[in-house]
Amino acid sequence: MAKFLQILVNGISLGSIYALTAIGYSLIYSILQLINMSNAAVFLTSAVIFYALYSSITAGQVALTFILTLLAAGALGYVIELVAIRPIREKGDSNTYALISSIGVKTILEQICQGTFGSEIKSFPTLLAGKYIDIMGARTSAIQIIIIVVTLSILFVMNWYTQHNRVGRGLRALSQNLNACHLMGMPVNTLIGVSFAVGSILAAVSGVAYCMYLSSISISVGAAIGNKAFAATVLGGIGVLKGAVVGGYILAVIESFVAGYWSMSAMNFVSFSVIIIVLIIKPTGIFGKKEQYKV
Amino acid sequence: MKKLLSLLLVVLMLITSFGCTKPEDKVESAADENGDFHIAVSLPYTGTNASYAEYIDMGIKVALKKLENEGWLNGDGTGKIICDYYDDKNDATEGATIATKVTTSTEPYYLLEVGSFASGVSYPCANIYKEAEMVQYALTCSKSDYLATSGDWGFSLSMTQDTAAARVAAYDIKYLNFDKIALIYSNDSWGLETCKFYTETAEKLGVQLLASEKYDDGQQDFTSILTKIKQTNPQLVMCFCAENDIVLIRQQAETVGLSCEWQVSSKSRTSNVLQNLGDLGEGLYGIYAKTKDLNDPVYIEYEKLYKEMYPQKFADDNNTTQKYADQGYNCMMTVIWAIKETMKTGTTRQAFRDKLATLTDFPGVQGKLTFATGRKILQIQYLSRIVRGEDGKLKWVNFEDILDTFDVDAVAGLK
Question: Which of A17, B43, B61, B225 is the most buried (most CB within 10 A)?
């Protein structure tokens, strides 16, 4: 029972990381039908920014470093949209070009991170190091609990934001009909920029939280999570925020149980098999809805 | 008409067969028109093993700097060694693309290739270099049949895994007296082979492993397999992992409450692991192949240059040179030696290979280097451990007198 619970807790805390990152993919897809591959690099870049600030300018103040990192990530997301996505979008070119552009941004950011940060693993500051809670024999670290609580809080805030906040409602409107928003005189470009900023902030939260969980940071940290988060988005229904969350948790829990009861090498085999089966049964993902177009 | 065509075909075949000579056959020396030699260096500058590439690269550059300070090969500023650096991304396909490129390149004409880091990249490319009759100096390749596969053209400064892993098992079981052992290893050529030889030796010594868990490249979360291993209640967890992975594994073992002794292979017995594990590293066992002698003039000269070129790195590594940088330096110094030795008669790829294969008692920075029969490198392996010194700082300490009382090769069945 203890083993079962331990693996479940591990899966849920990892699922929280997947979920946060997956929302970033889903949010942008819901508006532009674009898979923003640069999200994984923002995940890494934010963690690197946090590390750099923490070990120099902010000198050990976690809260201040965290806020500055989120601001930097938001600005980075806005700039990515402004420089790499908007020019292609405004020319009316296919999203395929924007996708390639986002892959380019991802590669550039990763190279910059490697060039400035180096390739060695480094210790990353964490919260409440060495504090554990025993839940029926399952040892849960304080940072795991913090990650789960923070994720659920962010999901709650995101839900409120898109339902009740003016900008959030604007984002929802964009996801329903971009052209109509244009015609209604809404600041579409700004709102799309904001969606990239929000997606990047979420990637930053998960990037920093994940490195705190690992107590370390290396340049390979973004790649694995980015792929998994994207898979989670597709599993849950791409473009549907709650789908990204559920997809993230399902994927991580499956992975944890396969690794814990069978083999870590079989983890990807099983989790991606599950995704394929789900997509065969329901091609739009768990919460995705079939779109109908008038001809 | 048919006769004419047949005749033409025969003539064409004859021309082709005479024309298809290897570039080597036309080359009297691999040096270019300026008398400079070109070397291809293929390392994983990006990807999970990038830190190792960085270290090896540093060592190579220190050796080149030393040569430059001496006026290059001829002592008068001529006869440079020019390295072209390729990123194989720790990927065999990329490695093969680079191998094809460097073996067929005529401008520059490469004398040899250095790299890659991982056996999983070097080994699949060995045949390309063998066919091209060009030395592949895979300095860290430890795959047991690498030297045989590479024909006469492969060289490595690392011991093969059949020897290295068997010795580790012998130390663990018969010297440290552990009989409840679990294994974690990377799911790559190196990890799979070390696991195989470690398990075989352990079984010969009467120990069945409690668990044997592999993981894929890029894995960050090990909590599930650590939870699984925790259930087996091991005395020792032996990790055949890259240094970045062992840091994650050891930290996450704390998260799941797995308390036991830990050991890493020589690949992870690094100052980086020491630094990043902090207090968690205390008591960690490691394996070290030959200790560097800090009073050896060869080492002192190397350390001086290293410190000048990489002061920050030197300070970060507790005022010592990095182990893989040492290997990169040794590799390039032996290359320089073989080139100098063959320059009088003409440094062709063949002449270079033949000379390098005779390397005996070369003064390296980790002791004397000799390529024995079959180009096997002879090395001693010590057990090593992170302990807290009198100054309160953690450091790696080698059990240098271990071989006086413990014949590891006899115990491991290697004699």
Answer: B43
